[in-house]
UniProtKB/TrEMBL annotation:
GO terms for cellular component: plasma membrane. Belongs to the binding-protein-dependent transport system permease family. AraH/RbsC subfamily. Keywords: Cell inner membrane, Cell membrane, Membrane, Transmembrane, Transmembrane helix, Transport. Its main location: membrane. It comes from Marinomonas posidonica (strain CECT 7376 / NCIMB 14433 / IVIA-Po-181). The keyword Transmembrane applies. The chain crosses the membrane at residues 59-92, 104-125, 137-159, 179-206, 237-260, 266-284, 291-310, 316-332. It is found in: Cell inner membrane. This is ABC-type transporter, integral membrane subunit.
Length: 352
């Protein structure tokens, strides 16, 4: 009798755990259903494409910091990196690379600007990783400091002004930047294709490469990972480098869509990205998370934001609702951790 009761408890616990793991899918379907009933034309193809295009920005950032959070880290500088990289791209297109001793300005093509900006984003992430690993600075403090530094550097680059009209000049051979944000490929915006390509690359790294397994091992038990021969510091530096690269790509896409760059672009974007990652099932304690979950989490946050705008909800209430969503996501994450622990203990008792 007792054995049957234990089995029933385990089954109910497993059902609850399954529902918690499926929370992002459930939330997505509920939100889609709610807005489809309350907003006319919400699920129209044109509206969906525009929403997914908006979602792609948050998705780039969220995908970038998924590995960071899996290692039990955090990166608050990705929004500032997005803004700074956008400013660098805007400066190179509008002002060129000025060589004062020679009195000339070189205007690089888009094929040079984009890779250069991505490298700069990666270097910012690498600096974060080096400070965190070599000088043992807490990720929260380190990335909070670099967030202010990078944001200030973006302001200094233009004196707080905007770089407008980034279509380029045919005579200078630097046109085509605006196509990244406004162009279409096979009926879908290029930004959406880039989002899915990035998700595929990150997912492949997580599932198929040793690096991905090392990331999970570090998040699960850093000391054990180090004793098993994993170069923990090197992996962490690369994790933050990937976050910087993804932030740079997001900065390029945003700047291209606006055809202008402003130093304040990307402010608070890191909060939406963290919310998407946590909502997608990645544990803030580290060791658990999926790229698919992060992508769906980005869709939940993005559709919620656009749906509230289409309903005419005040921006102030939107901030309140987003804050509530973040808190609920963290609470559910803690519940999942406890239920997984109890399920593991219950399985051990059942086997014994």
């Amino acid at each position: 009798m007792n054995k049957n009761n234990n089995n029933n408890v385990l089954r109910s616990g497993n059902l609850g755990l399954i529902l918690l793991k499926m929370r992002t899918f459930i939330a997505l379907f509920i939100i889609l259903g709610f807005f489809s009933l309350t907003v006319d034309g919400f699920l129209a193809p044109t509206s969906l494409i525009i929403m997914i295009k908006h979602i792609s920005i948050n998705a780039f950032l969220a995908l970038g910091i998924t590995f960071v959070i899996i290692t039990a880290g955090i990166d608050l500088s990705i929004g500032a990196t997005l803004g700074f990289c956008g400013m660098v791209a805007g400066y190179l297109i509008s002002h060129g690379l000025v060589i004062e001793p020679l009195g000339i300005a070189i205007f690089p093509s888009v094929w040079v600007v984009v890779p250069l900006v991505v490298v700069i984003g990666g270097l910012i992430g690498a600096v974060n990783g080096i400070i965190i690993t070599r000088y043992k600075v807490a990720p929260f403090i380190c990335t909070l400091g670099t967030m202010y530094i990078i944001r200030g550097a973006a302001m200094l680059l233009s004196g707080g002004e905007t770089f407008p009209g980034l279509q380029g000049n045919p005579e200078l051979g630097n046109t085509g930047f605006d196509a990244i944000g406004a162009g279409y490929l096979f009926g879908l915006p290029i930004a959406i294709w880039l989002m899915f390509i990035m998700a595929g690359i990150i997912a492949y790294i997580a599932r198929k490469l040793p690096f991905g397994r090392h990331v999970y091992a570090i998040g699960d038990n850093e000391k054990a990972a180090e004793l098993s021969g994993i170069k923990v510091n090197d992996v962490k530096v690369w994790v933050y480098t990937i976050a910087g690269i993804c932030a740079a790509i997001a900065g390029i896409v945003v700047t291209s869509q606006l055809v202008a760059s402003h130093p304040a672009t990307g402010t608070t974007f890191e909060m939406n990205a963290i919310a998407a990652v946590v909502l997608g099932g990645t544990s803030l304690a580290g060791g658990r998370g999926t790229v698919t979950g992060t992508l769906i989490g980005a869709f939940v946050i993005g559709i919620l934001a656009d749906g509230l705008v289409m309903m005419g909800v005040s921006e102030f209430w939107q901030m309140v609702i987003k804050g509530v969503v973040i808190i609920i996501a963290v609470i559910i994450d803690q519940m999942q951790n406890k239920m997984q622990y109890k399920a593991a203990i219950g399985s051990q008792k059942a086997l014994s």
